[in-house]
Specification:
With about 325 residues, this protein is of the alpha+beta class. It is built from 9 helices and 15 strands. The strands form 5 sheets. A 5-stranded mixed sheet has the order 5-4-6-7-10, with helices on both faces. Strands 2-1-3 form a 3-stranded antiparallel sheet, with no helix packed on it. A 3-stranded antiparallel sheet has the order 13-15-14. The longest helix is centred in the middle third of the chain and has 17 residues.
């Protein structure tokens, strides 16, 4: 998070230099009196690498958006939120995702909290810096927004939100659509969206921070979005019935079941979480397993118990 400075000459010429730069000033500029002006840094907070990619392109193309993209990689809409005494939040979240992913060679490390504290420290040192929270109408984005307010709400006049919920954008063919993710939006459309950036109001800080306290207190297995920025706590098996509806008494690839459920129901948890739920249903005896669950979804199959003869099932949809 290195700061950048603008060297402004008497004839309004601008040259960008880092503060510790040892790059010599060209001979053509020697003898000119310069003023050193710090460039305001905008920290663009966004959920996930997919959303970060077009945002980075937009920032590179638009000077007024100049800043750094800070990616929050955790999906806070699923998993526990209450840490135990002496436990760090990052440890809590890392343990949860390690159970979901099962990666023994490369244990999952969730370090969003550390990244957020770095931003907070930078803001405390530079009073002109700002935060832009980019959120889409998706549970993970809205959870990130609420969570960040808890830590960055102490900078009320520098905290902005860009909320694309319910707004139309143009796709590559020039057709209007309503995105559910920042990652679906073209960079040139994100440049237009910069005009949506507005300060988080004092009322929002109070109400939304209190909303997150309630969500953390509930500590449910999942959070769903119920319109606007309102979150609803749900049990971790909330979407199990949708998964079950794609199973049969014949073994099928877990990847197939998950992809079908995601496509039909637009389940906002991601494939890894749904694969974990299949494994949990196997543990509970609701499904039977074949293959290696420690690998990818394509490496294990599941089916309903028995062969289907004289079996009756009532599947809630």
């Amino acid at each position: 998070m290195q700061k950048q400075y603008t060297i402004i000459s008497a004839n309004n010429l601008r040259i960008f230099y880092p503060p510790s730069s040892k790059i010599p000033i060209p001979n053509s500029l020697k003898g000119i009196t310069f003023a050193l002006k710090q460039v305001v840094m905008i920290y663009h907070l966004v959920t996930g690498d997919v959303a970060a990619a077009p945002l980075r392109e937009a920032i590179q193309a638009e000077a007024s958006m100049e800043g750094e993209v800070v990616v929050m990689k955790d999906v806070l809409s699923v998993g526990p939120l209450q840490k135990e005494e002496g436990q760090k939040f990052s440890e809590l979240r890392s343990a949860f995702w390690q159970e979901v992913v099962i990666n023994e060679k490369n244990p999952v490390q969730v370090d969003d909290m550390e990244r957020l504290l770095e931003v907070s420290l930078a803001l405390s040192k530079n009073e002109e810096d700002k935060i832009w929270l980019w959120i889409a109408p998706w549970p993970a984005d809205v959870c990130m927004y609420h969570w960040v307010l808890k830590y960055l709400g102490k900078y009320p006049n520098r905290l902005y939100v860009v909320n694309i919920a319910g707004l139309p954008f143009l796709d590559e063919q020039g057709k209007v659509f309503f995105p559910k993710s920042i990652g679906e939006i073209l960079p040139k459309e994100l440049i237009k969206a910069r005009r949506l950036a507005r300060l988080v109001t004092p009322g929002e800080l109070e109400v939304d921070t209190d909303e997150w306290r309630k969500v953390v207190a509930a500590n449910a297995g999942m959070r769903t979005l119920e319109g606007g920025k309102r979150l609803m706590s749900r049990p971790e098996d909330h979407f199990d019935s949708q998964l079950i509806s794609f199973t049969s008494h014949q073994f099928q690839k877990a990847s197939k079941i998950v992809s079908q459920a995601l496509a039909k129901y637009s389940i906002p948890t991601g494939d890894l979480y749904l694969g974990w739920r299949l494994r949990k249903m196997v543990d509970a005896g609701r499904l039977e397993l074949q293959g290696d669950v420690t690998k990818a979804l394509k490496d294990f199959d599941v089916k309903m118990p028995g062969d289907g003869t004289n079996a009756q099932y009532s599947l809630p949809l």
